[in-house]
Every structure is written in C-alpha cells, then in structure tokens.
Amino acid sequence: MLIFMAILIGVLYSTGVYLMLRRNVVKLIFGLFLLGHAANLLIFTVGGLVRARPPLAAVGADAPPPDVADPLPQALVLTAIVIGFALTSFFAVLAKRVFLATGTDDTDALKSTES
Amino acid sequence: MTDPLILIILVPFAATIVAPAVARRLGAHTGWVLALAPAIVFAYVSRLLPIEPGTAHTVAVPWVGSLGIEFAFLADGLSVTFLLLISGIGALVMIYASSYLGRDPRLGRFYVFLLAFMGAMLGLVLADNLITLFVFWELTSVCSYLLIGFDHEKAEARAAALKALLVTGLGGLLLLAGFLLMGIAGEQLGLSAIAAGKISGLAAVDLREHAYYHAIFILVLLGCITKSAQVPFHFWLPAAMAGPTPVSAYLHSATMVKAGIYLLARLSPHLGGTPEWGWTVGLIGLVTMLTGSLATLGQRDMKRVLAYSTLAVLGTLVMLLGVGTEMAVKTAVVYLVAHAMYKAALFMVAGNVDHETGTRELHRLGGLRKLMPWTALAGILAALSKAGAPPMFGFIGKEMLYTTKLTVENVGAWAVVASVVANVALVASALMVSVWPFLGKRGDTPKKPHEAPLAMVLGAVLLSLMGLGRGLMPQPFETNLGSAAASAILGRPVEMHLALWHGVDPTALAVLGLSLLTLTLGGGLYFLIRRRVAPVGPLLRRLFSVGPTQLYDLTLQGIYSGADRVTRFIQSGRLRFYVMVTMLVTVIVAGPPLVRAFMGGPAAANGGWRIHEIIVAALALTAALAATALRSRLATLALVGVVGTCMGLLFVFFSAPDLALTQVMIEVLSVVILVMVLHRLPLVIKRSGRLSRGRDAVVAAAVGITMTLFVLTVARVDRDPTVSDFYLEQSVPAAHGRNVVNVILVDFRAMDTLGEITVLGAAGLGVLALLRLRRKERS
Q1: Is residue A62 part of a domain?
Q2: Which among B181, B539, B658, B742 is least buried, having the fewest CB atoms inside 10 angstroms?
Q3: Could you give the residue ranges of the DSSP H alpha helices within A1-115?
Q4: Chain B partners of A76 at a C-beta cutoff of 8 Å?
Q5: What distance in Å separates the CA atoms of residue B678 and residue A84, rounded to the nearest whole number?
Q6: CA end-to-end span of chain A, whole Å?
Q7: A positions 3-32 inside 8 Å of B (CB)
Q8: Is the residue at A29 inside a domain?
Q9: Number of domains making up chain A
Q10: Residue A56 domain-assigned (yes or no)
Q11: Tens digits of per-residue pLDDT, B438-495?
C-alpha cells in the first residue's frame, strides 16, 4: 500500500504545483489546497501505515495495546490540517479583496507594489 | 586589565560618550576640553621614555581562548613613536577642529568619530595579536569613511568616502586572509595557537621558510599598500580631501595612511629581507614616490598639493622599508616623524587659509604674510622642513635618504636619480604652499582675510617649531625613541646618530652636494611654475588624469548595472516565476541524492493492500488530475472536495479516527468558504499557451516524482520510537486520557495547541476584517 500512497502523494504535489503555476488566482487557491493535502498525507504516510489499530487505550487499561499506530505523526497532521484551513481561507478571502481592489485576477498583472 | 597600556586605548573611546554633551555646551571651544583625552595619553606615553632599543613591554588579556585569540598588546620603540604622533597631533587637531567647524550643529558627531578613530589607531599600533590588530585596522577604515563623508549632503564627499572605504576595505579582507595564513604557518612551524597569532611570538620561527610565505607576503602587502595609498591604489587619497581639513591633517597625512607603513615596518623582521620583499616593496614605493611628487606640481588647490606630496612621502617610506638596510630603516623612522609633524602643520595652515580667505585656490592667494602672521610663520617653517632645508628636521631626513641611496649597493644610480627628481618636485610643491599664498602681492580672495583664532594657529605653530627644534637638537629624539624604533623594525638593537653636519668625508659631502642641488633645482622649478614659463601644470594634470581611478569608476559602474540586471531578472514580480524557481531548485538539489538513495537500498515493507484502499486512493488521484484540467470553478471545487474526503477515508483505514473527523469537518468548512468567495471572482480564462502549459506540466511532474521517491526512501528509515512510546505509556497514568492523540494535543503539547488556536483566531479576524471592508465600501 505504501507504493500507492507514495504515488498519490506525488500526484497531489504535481497537481498542486501545476495549479500554482497558472495565472488565475482561482487556480492558485486550488493549488494551495491540494499542496496542503499532499503535505499532510506525506507526514502521515512516512509515520507508518497501520490498519485498524488506533492509539486508544481501553477502559481501565494502563496503556494502549502494543502495535497501535504511532500517535505522534497523527498529532502533527491534525495541527497541520487546522492551520492549513486557516491559511487557505484567509488566502481565499485575500485573493478576493485583491481582485476587487485591482480589478484583475491575473497574477502576472500583480507585479507592482504601487496601485 | 589594570595595565595602563590597555587603559590608554579606552581613554578616547570613553571620551566619545561625553563628546556630544560637551559639544552642545561649549560649541567652538569644545576642542580645548576634548583634547584632554589625547593629552592624557600623550602624557602617559611620554613617561615611558626613553625606550631602551630592543626592549618591548607586552600585556595580554584572554579573549577567544578556543581560537587562540587574545587582546594582546605590545609597546616598543615603533609603537611608542606612533602613540606619541597619534596622541600629540591628535590633541592639537582636537583643539583645531572645533574652532574650524565653528557653530556646526554636527560638532558632537564629528568629535565622536574623531575620538573613535583615535582609539582605533592607538589599538592598531599597540596590538600584538594579529586578529586584534585586524579589528582595529578595520575600525580605522570605518572611521575614515565616516569622517571623509562628514559633509554627507555633498555627493562628492559621499563618493570619496565610499572610494576610501572600498579600497581600504578590500585591502583589509586580503590582509585578514594573510593573517590567517600567518597563523596557520606559525602553528605548522611548531608554535602554540596563542604564539602563532602573536606578532611577538613570530620571532621564534622563520616564516620565510614556509611554503605559504609568498601568499602571506602578497596578501599582507596588498593590505598595507591599499591602506597607505600606494600605486595603483593611491587614487583614494586625493579624493579623500573632500573631508574637513582637520580630518585630512589627522587621518590622511599624519596617522591612518601610515598604518600600512606601520604594519610593513612591524612585520619586516618576520617577512622582510628576501629579494622578493626588497624588489616588490621597493619598486611600489619608488613608483608611488615619483607619481605623487610629479602629480603634486599639477595641482593648484592647496589641499590637493599636500595630498599628492603625502603620496610621495608614503612612497618614499615604503621604498625605504623595501630596501631594509640599517641606514634605510633609520631614515624611514626620521622621515616618518618629520613628515607627520610638518604635514599636519601644513594641512592646518591650508585649513586656516581656506577658513579665513574662503578659497584654497593658489591663483587667488598671495601676500597673506602681513594679515596672517602666525599662520604664515607656521606655513613657511613647515614648508622648509618639507623641502628639506637646513636646519629643519626634514633636512636630516633627506640627507639620510640620499646617504641610504648612495651607500646601498644594489639600489644603483637610478634610485638616486629618482630620489633627486622626487625631492626637487617636493621642494617646488613646498614653495607652492608657502611662498605662493604668503609672500608677494595680495590676492583676490572671496573673504577679507585676517588671522585665524588661537586654537587654529596653536597646532600649526607648535608642530612647525618642533620641526625646527628637532632639527637643531636631534639628540633627545635619537636617544629617547629613534634608536628603539629602528631596532624594532630591524629586529635587533641598533644605535641612531643624527646630525645636521656630518663633517668632511666623501659620502657626507656628496650628500650635502645633492641636497643643495635639490634645493636649487626645486627653487628653479617653482619659479617656472609661478611665472607660467612652462605649462607644467596642465601637462601633468593631463598625464595623471587617466589611471586606476577610471578603472575604479568602471568597476563600480559595472557592479551597479550588473546588480541591477540580476535583480531585474531574479525579481520578476511574477508569482509563478518564484514558484517555478523554488520547485526547480528543490528538484535539482534533492532529486539526484534521492534517486541514488532509492536505487541503493532495499524496498520498504509494502504492507499489502486492500481493494477499498486502492479504490479510494485511485479516486483521489483521478479527482486531483481532473481538477487541473477543468475550467468551471464549482466543478473544480467539487473535485478538490472529493480529494479531501478521500483523505478522510484513508485516515479512517489507517487507524487515525481523529484525523478523519477533523479532515471531513474542515473540508466542509473550506468548501463553504470557497463557494462564498468564488462567486465574487471572475470566470477562469485560459491565459497560458500550450508551450508554457507543457513546461509547467514537466516541472510539476518532476516535483511529484521527487516527492514520491522521498516518501519511499524515508519510509525505509527506522524511526526512533522514544517520544512516541513515552506518550503511549504516560497518556493514561499521567494525563488520565485514553485517546493518545488528543492527550498529546491538549496536555503534553498544550502550549503548541494554544499557539495554533492563536493562529486560527488571527486568520479568522483577518477574514472577518476583509469581509467587513467590503460591507463598509458598499454602504
């Protein structure tokens, strides 16, 4: 399964980068989105894929059973998902403001710092 | 730390703290108070006299012990000579400067720079450790930059300051490289790290035998000749005359430009004495001497006349150090001291003339003798010393110079001729700055001249009288200091005997004859220039108008326009260009090692596959690919949503229920926000051609492949389970939580989560603010 996940991550990176290289602000937003997914999945995957053994302790037990999934990458990815959401939504709103202020959604036209 | 030798370096630096306050209170009288700092140093150093030849007093304070660097200081005849010049002339310049600058509101700043420079210069000549010396060396360059550019509203002053900084700064870097090589060579020759970094420690070994000798020699030499304005780096010094006159008097004649001479002298026992040293140093000095002395005749601005004649003297000093015989070194010592005194005096005289008449142009000056009697006295006495006329100290210096040339076998007749030519020119230029403005008919000056105030006359008169006094009675100088200074340069104790009259022996008579010939020819040359019989001035100006200055200007222009072009290329302002560069660099740097690592190692455990996992992964993959091809905004958004949801499912399959919950929730929120935003944005238009899409696709594919390889390679690495195991074990007993991921987030790493919440809050506020902005605009 690792190989499939690796290919999926590669494709997500590719599509994310490809969309970021477009000149439309809308595509840029989508590209950023996909790139975020790719990074999250990468950390999750290299942290080890374990089926159906979440890091939970049973009621009354002192610790989760051995061989559960590593909780550390999961904690990291959880944080990353939330931060990624903050980033993309802020960027999306900002992109809209830029369009309303400058009248263009062509990133090549957004070169000057003066209005 | 209590050794007074270290404290005297601190005195000027301490004075910088009070300087602005003093300058605000006292204005034009500031100098009298601030001159106390150099006066204290002078008084202390004077008490060290007489210096026994061949002795040295050393102090060391640990600094960076691990690198073998100490604050090490060394006082011997050479450094004490410089200390006295720096502090003595320093005191007089301090007194002079406030009167010269008058009610300038930037007086406080000026004194801070001047005092800081003085401290740096004292440190430079006292330093025993190479790194300590280098630090002070650079500090003098920086102070010189600030002082030359003091009138920073003038473009000319700024350019001159930059020129001086770039030339001496470049030399400084080369010098540092030379010093480091010296340290390495010293250690390889068996010295300890501390001793190898010390100038006094180098006496124990012979660097000339080391393989690095030539590299060290060239680098150190370049450092010295840039600092001391030798050809071909001489052009910064005349330009530096753009600084205020006190600065020219202090830095650019008496002290800083002599730092290079000092270092050559200081290192000549360790690096000198080889044929390479003799020829290179000697020739550079000779060429500079001739260039400076001839160029000075073409100038008609008093300060520039003095600047070029300073070049000539610096060249002479370098040449003497290149020759390096006992006689040559003694001559260098006498010449150095004589020059510092008369040249500082002449600069002050030029400053007075400029200050009181409003011009330094010789054409407009004349007959100032009656109106400015004290200035005239100082000017004429100092010029006599400069011309090498008896009974001045400068006369002794010139006699010794000729003796050196005549007695040293390998120098030859050409050097004698060159020295005579240079000195004839110097006599003429001495007459130009003394006879021309002070004698003859009254000139047509912008201001009605009168004598300068006491503070501005004092220094020039004292220094020029000392030139006379030392000439008449040279014995105190030779016993107190001269012999010790010459011994320090030669590296062995020697005796110095100075006299105006050497009795009747063939060499002495020949020298006397040459001296008289020089004076006569110089006088004649001045007459020709003054009467404009020969077009010497224009001819020389044209001759020296081309040279390294043009090269410097071209280089600087080249750097500017080159930087401009590079910046324009790199900073295109187009976002996709930056993304492209970032990605390409990542691929190029990370790609090849990843391929190698991936090919080399064993395949990672794949863990088998289930059909539902493959279906979900394939769905995400297809959706992502399709998202790149569609133009409809909503359809693309839906596809991106599919990718996110598939990720949620994958999290479920691989034991991460919390991630799955978060992912799905966030995905829904994101889609909602994007829908809100997207309908305000225009439809997607196709903007790129097929070619650029193809190029982007290749780059994107390369990034994807790199990342895939990265995942596969990293998955093979055995992770250190310590931290994860700690969380798994401690979750229930320590934090009373059964969901380990949650416990990590809200307990073990609660501060991180707090930070995350803050970020989220800030982003939320940002979104809100941007949305409300629109509402306000509408209303």
Answers
A1: no
A2: B539
A3: 2-20, 25-46, 71-102
A4: none
A5: 18
A6: 51
A7: 3-15, 17-30
A8: yes
A9: 1
A10: no
A11: 888 887 888 888 888 888 889 999 999 988 888 888 888 888 888 888 888 888 888 8
